[in-house]
TrEMBL record:
The chain crosses the membrane at residues 20-38, 50-77, 98-123, 135-155, 167-187, 228-247. It is found in: Cell membrane; Membrane. Belongs to the ABC-2 integral membrane protein family. Keywords: Antibiotic resistance, Cell membrane, Membrane, Transmembrane, Transmembrane helix, Transport. Residues 18-255 form the ABC transmembrane type-2 domain. It comes from Demequina litorisediminis. Its main location: membrane. This is Transport permease protein. It is a multi-pass membrane protein. It comes from the Bacteria.
Amino acid sequence: MTADRFVVEVKEFTRSREQMIFIFFFPMIFLALFGAIFNTDDLYGTGVSFGQYFLAGMIASGMLNTGFQSLAISISIDRSEDALKRIHATPLPPTAYFFGKILQVLVVSVVQVALLIAMGALLFDVSLPADAWHWVTFAWVFVLGLACSTAWGIATSSLLRNGKAASAILTPVVLVLQFTSGVFFVFTELPSWLQHFAEVFPLKWLAQGMRAVFLPDEFAAAEAAGSWQLPLIAIVLSVWLVAGLVISAKTFRWLRLDDR
């Protein structure tokens, strides 16, 4: 049942041109534009270009868009159109529905990250990690960050009263996080109060974890704390993941508020 539901989710995604453009092409367009506009070849004397720095942020941002924003909107629309009510009335177990969604988010994110890495290597000479330690770091940051984003996507879907207005509500939230978390700008160049604001939320730590993978180790000294802070990244993302799971379990609803 999970496999069948996953196939349905993939078909729905691939048949939605707007969603595919938002998930795949927007991050690639932003990577090309911002990398070309802010064409700095030597950030803080580390030999790192802004395009290389921006790649890590766009990978993190793409995962947030896929796991949080896109998932919350799609579930909210399903609820508004009574699709969730019909699904809940069938023999399909709730676990199969959720795992189908999660697997679809995972596959889409893998493709998205692969495209961004390929683009970064071609346009901005981003070097892929040459040792196993960096790939292990990438694996756990990716899995933990995507799980956190997905959990909050499910949790947030229940807080949205209207599926049609979901995008208008979530887009400003995501934009604020992107502009304050070291995605569109170098994090240390932001005012200190914005840095402290961003430290509360997972996107800042997800972007920092990706920088630890794709930027040279020498750049760690240019971070706000003077290091990659990998243990703290794991702790913050884990706390947000647990909180998202708890809120999802307690607040998720299959019916519209009007039906109650």
